[in-house]
Amino acid sequence: MTSLTRQEARAAVRIELADMPPSANSLRKSFVRNGKVVSAKTDAYSAWREAAIWEIASQRAGRIDGPYSLSIAAQRNWRTKRARDIDNIIKPVSDALVKAGVVTDDSLAERVTAQWADDLGGPAVVVIVQEAQESLAA
Fold this sequence. Notes:
Largest sheet: 4 strands, mixed
Shape: globular
Order of helices and strands: HEEEHEHEE
Distance between the termini: 16 Å
Mean pLDDT: 85
Low-confidence stretches: 1-8
Number of strands: 6
């Protein structure tokens, strides 16, 4: 079997998300309760993640068991001209994939790529999850 044939045979899931995830910098809030510092998810993150889970479920995305690679394309300047760091989009998307059951655990990600796109044709984010490619060192 050629390398190309193995790559073509890998299972893949494509997901479109209508809204941009919040930055990883704003996923949690900290406050003091009974003299202890407590951390909790922000309301904006909780709302985005819940909407993303329903959106993923409605697309009947499927499931990737075991190690996987994750590719994320995010629409540049989505509803704002404010600059964002592309790497701050990875964590919320990855968490939503776990909660939606597309992957069992984000620690199984063997490769993660994220890039800005100039025209995704509607969605804020397009995600592709693929079974991990065999190790090149094997």
